[in-house]
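JOB MANIFEST
job_type = single_chain_structure
chain_count = 1
residues = 159
[input]
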Amino acid sequence: MVHMGIGYDVPPLVAGRKLVLGGVEIPHPKGLAGHSDADALMHAICDAVLGALGEPDIGHFFKNTDPRWKNAPSRVFLEEAARQVVFHQGRLINVDATVLAEEPKLAPHLPAMKLAIATALGLSVRRVGVKATTNEKLGFLGRGEGIAAMAVAAVDLPE
């Protein structure tokens, strides 16, 4: 039976941090605030996969108070989500995600993001969708105060 999950993350942009999205470092004067590398795209996908399994969110598995995860690459979290699928005797079918950011332009980085996400999840890149859009200058995203990501995941689980 196919189970669906949804994930969302929206960290603020801050000076003095690298911007990492989808496992790719992107040139930008600001990065995302967080305990790990704060990769909003990978965090949203992780939550979508865990949600499809009926598990709690990423914070349950990787507490933001644990020093082990300080500045950790979010690839580690995504790899654990994939292990959880196997633990539940499931099969990850696909993931689809959208990043909302006014800046920087993300289109040139989308193929590398897809590859990094597919690799972390053990999927073909054809089973990973990554899109980018703006918030049309509306709200805190439109003012460039943060970057948001949302994702869905489909997991085939035994009954």
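[summary]
The CA atoms of residues 39 and 74 lie 6 Å apart.
The longest strand covers residues 91-100.
exit_status = 0
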